[in-house]
Amino acid sequence: MMGAFMKNLPRGAGLAGALVVLIVAASFISPHFLNPINILNVLRQVALYGILGVGMTFVILTKGIDLSFGSTVALTGVAGALLLEQGVPIALMVPACLALGVAIGAANGFGVSYWRIPAFIATLGTMVMVRGFALMLADGGTVNPGRHADTFFFLGGGYLFGVPTPIYVFAVVCAVAAIVLGYTPFGRAIYAVGSSEEAARLSGINVPLVTFGVYAIGGFLAALSGLIFLSRLSVGDPNSGLGLELEAITIAVIGGTSLFGGEGTVLGTIGGAMVLAIIANVLNLAGVSPFSQQVVKGAIIILAVLLETGRRSNK
Amino acid sequence: MTAALKLEHISKSFPGVRALADVSFSLRPGEIRALVGENGAGKSTLMKILSGAYSADEGRIELFGEHVVDPTPASMIGRGVAVIYQELAQAPHLTVTENVLMGRLPMRAGLVDWPRAHRTTAEVITRLGFEVDPRARIGDLSVAKRQMVEIAKAIARNARIIVLDEPSAVLAQAEIDQLFLIIRQLAAEDGVAFAYISHRLREVFEISDTVTILRDGKVVHDGPSAAMTTDGLIRSMVGREVGDVFPTRHPRIGAEALAATGLTTRTMLKNAGITLRQGEIVGLFGLAGAGRTELLRAIYGADPVESGELRVKGRTVTTGSPRRGIALGLGLVPEDRKTEGLFLIQSVGFNIMSASLGRILRRGLLSSLLEKQIVRGLIDRLHIKTPNAATAAQNLSGGNQQKCVLARLVSAGCEILLADEPTRGVDVGAKREIYDLLVELAESRGLAILMASSELPEILGLCDRVYVLREGEVTAELDARRTTEEEVMHFAALH
Amino acid sequence: MSKLIGRTVALFAGIALVYSALPAMSADQIVIGFSQASSNSAHRNTMTKRNQSYAAENFKDVKLVVTNAEGKSAKQISDVESLMVQGMKVLMISAQDSAAIAPTIKQVMAAGIPVVTLERSLDTPVTLHVGPHNKPIGKLAGKFIVEKLGGKGNVVEIKGDPAVAPAVERHDGFAEAIAGTAIKVIAETHADWDQEKALKFMEDTLQRFPAGQIQAVFTHNDNMAFGALRAIQAAGRAKEGILIIGIDGENAAIRSVDKGDLTATFTYSTVAPEGVIAAHALATKDTAALEKLGTLTKKPDGSMEIEIASNMITKANATQFFCKGFGDDPECK
């Protein structure tokens, strides 16, 4: 009965349904939820974590995983803060930090694709190493760029036409990601590699290069996210971003990205980021105790994924 | 004599499908009964009911005159029913003994009595007339040997009824012969009853006493095999006239398309050479392990080559990667369609376009409009039966999946087709469609086709020439229309 | 060939490293061992560095050997064992895990080597514990809020990681101070010492409680206080005069208090240079020096304890504390 019902639902229906239910429930639970400022706050959260979610989607689509996101966020934050402290102009600091992220991603990609280290292990290694670099650079504490940070605050903390800047950044990231995945040969190759590596190879796809590419993209987006965090907080904290990779994985999976590769969309990931952000927001608005919050969050994540897998397995 | 097995008026439905409707199926002790039917006819559902994996909605199961209520896999094994599946459920890291005596290893003082265990296993193996070390790891054995081990396991459990699901699909002729010998011996001397499921009709006549034909969940024929003809069998299976098994050939052979000389790989090929001309269908025959797949993959560039020369359309070339192979006009239909040929979870359109995205690239982006046109055209031309282009490839039948692989190669502008077992696991009806397709590609589009197959009739019925491989070497080049199965086997088998 | 050269160089570099790690032993020097738990916080790094530099400048008779357990209890145990081998006269230790290191410390004590624990006390008796107390700090902060608000108002409490003692004790002290007053905690969370988490919680909380409903934010560390400050500023509610109180006395927080952004911070001593002074005093049996450090209490089991009191830093006295806290401050270099 349930199976027959779910069978006829289109792709992503479970997620869309869950989102609608969540939004309706949230607006009943708290009168502040639909307040425009609150909605912008939620969207900013969607943007902050969604960027990582998109990066993780690329990696998971190839059946990979990247555990080094959180550390990369911390390292680029610290590196950016140090550069600002030294008086390096923003126009130089930003590309330098992004390049650092790409380098970390490239190291992951190299290990996974050419040395054939399992992604879990390779990125676990970089996760620890990169965290170490961040602590080394920051000497254990936070790096405070002082007045140099004020001009940079715009990227993560500022507004443009009344909308927080990170939302614009996220919109651009999503648009580009959606085009790459949906309308370029590289995007097709990502899905192909994730569906069957051997079939992809026999179809003439350069599998190592594609794998390398997705980790580099992941590193880039993690660095971008690190810069936004730095800008928002104005300090580089080597202990920040702990567990962000899990958040990113959660977002991608709630968004319908299959951990077995080859399945997932940017739109789904946006939905996943929204689900998580709304849950966190409404629990705070409702004044739910911090421990119960974790229980509720976990339960809702499982429920959202169940809805989606239920639909899929009944196809 | 009491029947060993009686399944009476069995019906089974799944949501939206009536898998079995009023099916009766019986076995006498010592009887070898073939169960045939197209994919989806209900064979595997029937066998799963017999093994206790499914419970029937209606009907009655009787074993040796005893009514079985609420069968479970464990209780059916206990009652002497053993099902040997096509994909063998064995633990590759365990030894032969551990597999054969799984769950019932002899104990002494709380520990496994290994000497006795190995002895018991060796006895069973000897009785079956094959050779294998009880201490060998399953993972190190050939597929044929593993199958024998599986039968040994059934015998060790005192199975009285053995179901064999497509046992020959992965076996070479000599191995099949040995398997048949064992089956006959067990049936005649020990009274074991066999249900034998196969797509290979020739085997059905060779091994079975009786045959049950299923179509759309119903029994359409039940009688002695000797009273049946191949045509009649096929007619009953597909429910219509199929005409000849193989299409009539009108070969128009052109210039040399491909010449490989002295191909040698580290593990298999030894100085192998072949030539292929435009419009020609050439067979590649050999027993399991002769190097058929390896030769195709080496030519295509999927596996590294130690030495050898390759000439494509008269020009000496280097391959070395599938990418390069595709650029040269080569196309491979891989042996394992599901893992190497297709992106199962992706759409039919995705699969068809995946090797020729350049065709739909406009200003750096893929045009969905162009893609739809090309995919639609190929679906029509190759008669791919699919609800639409967005359907996931895994939801298609084996034959249509194989056509998707072929469509991909056609779209990529493939001129030299290397097909590895293109009809494996495909229905009789769909086989003919694939033959037609191959013939069409060769005769009207001038493709050169090299087709590896373990089914000799297929090679002799379809091809112009045939190369025979043995242990990585080409042992003969024969005119497929003049040669005989015996002659081919002579070159394929050990002297 | 180049591989061979590479290996040779690596070998010599390795040997050089081992030699440099060995302490330069000198017969007339007192060896004091300092086992630090980790280097992933500015607080601990300042503890290490200030004790080191103080010893270098003031105790010519001391050789201070510092080890770092990198956050692993197992490494800390072997660190302490190697310090024993090096013949230390006193052990200073800032423990990674109070329970895990206890058996090793018992052995050190049994060997007659005095042990000084810094900041974090242990589950086994030691010679001396020197450090700040979390509960009094929480109480101090609570009292400050009660006074500032005239005994009534709404407070948001942003706590640290619920799994560690400082967060629990800072909360307990705070709760004790506001008990019986008309001060209410209207929202609370565990932000795990993380600035971004505090920021996000504060954003949502500001939505939940419109202007005029929040009088103060009490955070368990300065890092989270900055998060709350960011949220209040971004929401345009800085003009409401919400009190923002942090704990720790980070250099950046002290600057911010001076600027008037944060209302107050309460120092959490880095036990530097008090740690090495106490160790030196024990080594030289100079009890007078010990008593100068703070309130000295003697316990029935013979162990001693010195509590280092917290300093309240407000706009009135912030300039005196510039660069005396811990953590990065560009103005201090």
TrEMBL record, chain B:
<keyword id="KW-0762">Sugar transport</keyword>
<dbReference type="GO" id="GO:0016887">
    <property type="term" value="F:ATP hydrolysis activity"/>
</dbReference>
<dbReference type="Pfam" id="PF00005">
    <property type="entry name" value="ABC_tran"/>
</dbReference>
<dbReference type="InterPro" id="IPR027417">
    <property type="entry name" value="P-loop_NTPase"/>
</dbReference>
<dbReference type="InterPro" id="IPR003439">
    <property type="entry name" value="ABC_transporter-like_ATP-bd"/>
</dbReference>
<keyword id="KW-0472">Membrane</keyword>
<dbReference type="GO" id="GO:0005524">
    <property type="term" value="F:ATP binding"/>
</dbReference>
<keyword id="KW-1003">Cell membrane</keyword>
<dbReference type="InterPro" id="IPR003593">
    <property type="entry name" value="AAA+_ATPase"/>
</dbReference>
<keyword id="KW-0677">Repeat</keyword>
<feature type="domain" description="ABC transporter">
    <location>
        <begin position="5"/>
        <end position="241"/>
    </location>
</feature>
<dbReference type="GO" id="GO:0005886">
    <property type="term" value="C:plasma membrane"/>
</dbReference>
<protein>
    <submittedName>
        <fullName>Sugar ABC transporter ATP-binding protein</fullName>
    </submittedName>
</protein>
<dbReference type="InterPro" id="IPR050107">
    <property type="entry name" value="ABC_carbohydrate_import_ATPase"/>
</dbReference>
<keyword id="KW-0813">Transport</keyword>
<keyword id="KW-0067">ATP-binding</keyword>
<feature type="domain" description="ABC transporter">
    <location>
        <begin position="253"/>
        <end position="494"/>
    </location>
</feature>
<keyword id="KW-1278">Translocase</keyword>
<keyword id="KW-0547">Nucleotide-binding</keyword>
UniProtKB/TrEMBL annotation, chain C:
<keyword id="KW-0732">Signal</keyword>
<protein>
    <submittedName>
        <fullName>LacI family transcriptional regulator</fullName>
    </submittedName>
</protein>
<feature type="signal peptide">
    <location>
        <begin position="1"/>
        <end position="26"/>
    </location>
</feature>
<dbReference type="GO" id="GO:0030313">
    <property type="term" value="C:cell envelope"/>
</dbReference>
<dbReference type="Pfam" id="PF13407">
    <property type="entry name" value="Peripla_BP_4"/>
</dbReference>
<dbReference type="GO" id="GO:0030246">
    <property type="term" value="F:carbohydrate binding"/>
</dbReference>
<comment type="similarity">
    <text>Belongs to the bacterial solute-binding protein 2 family.</text>
</comment>
<dbReference type="InterPro" id="IPR025997">
    <property type="entry name" value="SBP_2_dom"/>
</dbReference>
<feature type="domain" description="Periplasmic binding protein">
    <location>
        <begin position="32"/>
        <end position="270"/>
    </location>
</feature>
<dbReference type="InterPro" id="IPR028082">
    <property type="entry name" value="Peripla_BP_I"/>
</dbReference>
